[in-house]
Write a structure and sequence with these properties.
Layout (H helix, E strand, L loop, with lengths): L1 H19 L3 E5 L4 E5 L5 E6 L8 H29 L8 H27 L2
Antiparallel strand pairs: 1-2, 2-3
């Protein structure tokens, strides 16, 4: 039993490391705009070919938004692919993840309250 738990923890640590290494890329305007996103989907790089500065501001904004969305979508796709490779059921809906996140957040808050109480009692 302990060996199985140890193996599961190693697999989970490996998955977490691989998830953290995900990097999404999106392009627009014929490759003249390239946007990079980190594993959380936050934009961490924007490369603009100087030629895009000739575009009308509204067109540039639309193309930039298209590249940002593509980079974030790429992160989501890579995450889904990685998770599906682990055998986790991809049909689990987002509501289940949100409920799990709420439970973890509540548990963390309860733990912090308990630790604060422990610190005051000393």
């Amino acid at each position: 039993m302990a060996r199985e738990a140890e193996q599961a923890m190693r697999r989970l640590a490996d998955l977490q490391e691989r998830l953290g290494a995900i990097r999404g890329t999106g392009t627009a305007a014929g490759g003249q705009i390239v946007v990079g996103a980190d594993s959380s989907g936050r934009i961490d790089s924007i490369e603009l070919n100087p030629r895009v500065m000739r575009m009308a501001s509204q067109d540039l904004a639309e193309e930039l938004l298209r590249a940002v969305n593509a980079a974030q979508d790429d992160c989501v796709r890579q995450t889904r692919d990685l998770v599906s490779d682990t055998g986790v059921d991809p049909s689990v809906d987002e509501a289940a993840f949100e409920a799990m996140e709420r439970r973890l957040t509540d548990a963390h808050a309860a733990f912090m309250r308990e630790m604060e109480g422990y610190g005051r009692s000393r």
